[in-house]
Amino acid sequence: MNTLFNEIIGNEVAITMLQNIINAGNIAPAYLFTGISGIGKFKATLLFAQYLIKSKYELLVVLPEGATTNKPTIKIEQMREASAWCATKPAIGTRKVVIINAEGGLSEKCSNAILKTLEEPPSYITIIIVSNHEMLPTINSRCHRIDFKQLSNDEVVTVLENNGHSNVHEAIISASYGSPGRALQILEVWDELSPFIENLSTPPKTTCEALNHSNEISKLDHSSQLLLLQLLGVTWWTSLKDPHLLGKCTAAVQFIDKVSAHAVWDNLLIPM
Questions:
Q1: Contact 236/259 with Cβ under 8 angstroms?
Q2: Angle between the 76-86 and 108-119 helix axes, to the nearest 10 degrees?
Q3: Which residues pair with 16 in a beta bridge?
Q4: Residue 38: is it exposed, middle or buried by C-beta count within 10 angstroms (0-12/13-18/19+)?
């Protein structure tokens, strides 16, 4: 059995598929790795590419630009540069690999920019697209699809322990929804968010209390507010099992990008 992927936790089916591809030596021109963010897709992609190429110089990784913003995206210029890179033969070995980290999705223009290469790929090229979004049918039909699934809670705990985090709060594990990456993201701001989780273990009983919490929460940055909404959702559902309250949390997550954050928190916290 190939040991290349031993460091990957979970997703045995996807990893077995990759191992079988390697053992058979039948490498497709293009792959699409799908699944939610933070479950090991990109790490598995890099390990797979490591097997396919003889030199790091034969690997091109296309990453979304604007990583510090809420919605980093791949630009059309990046895709054109990738297509041009594919047109040159490898200097070392027999294969070149392009990894397109399209976690934020690919626009139609970007998809079309790489489509010609996918339609007529040079014999030495393998393109791997990594995404948590649906691709255009023209992209899907030209890629061998490998689906990655959410991890179990125990697997998430194992990944966190491997990263030096033990005795992690149960709310973090629940709010990760099977994504160790999301859990690590929550851990980065846990000291900031944990007082709100403690003080809001149950929803506020008075309007005054709700408004005070809303004022303080609205001072957090956008990503922290979104994580807090997810944490509160699982915390309240675990303790109260109230479908109406869960629905309000779900709606708040959907509206936090569209209207005033202050209004979202007021609507969620003020008792009805």
A1: no
A2: 10
A3: none
A4: buried
Q: Give me 145's structure tokens.
A: 């699809």
76 vs 18: CA distance, rounded Å:
29
Q: Which residues are within 8 A (CB) of 131 and not within 5 positions of it... i.e. 6 or more apart?
A: 32, 33, 34, 102, 103, 105, 106
CB atoms within 10 A of CB 124: 16
Q: Does domain 12-147 have CATH number 3.40.50.300?
A: yes
Place of tokens 């985090």: 165
**Buried-state track 67-96, b at ≥16 Cβ within 10 A, e below 16:** eeeeeebbbeebbeebbeebeeebeeeebb
Sorted by where each begins, the domain ranges of the chain are: 12-147, 153-269
Sign of the torsion angle spanned by Cα atoms 1, 151, 226, 217: negative
Read off the tokens for 213.
């919490």
Closest CA to 99 of 56, 148, 146, 62: 62
Give me the tens of pLDDT residue by residue for the chain, a chain 272 residues long.
457 898 899 999 999 999 999 999 999 999 999 999 999 999 999 999 999 999 999 999 999 986 544 567 899 999 999 999 999 999 999 999 999 999 888 999 999 999 989 999 999 999 999 999 889 999 999 999 999 999 999 999 999 999 999 999 999 999 999 999 999 999 999 999 999 999 999 999 999 999 999 999 999 999 999 999 999 999 999 999 989 898 999 999 999 988 899 999 999 999 98
d(CA 91, CA 161): 41
Which of 148, 144, 95, 92 has its CA nearest to residue 118?
144
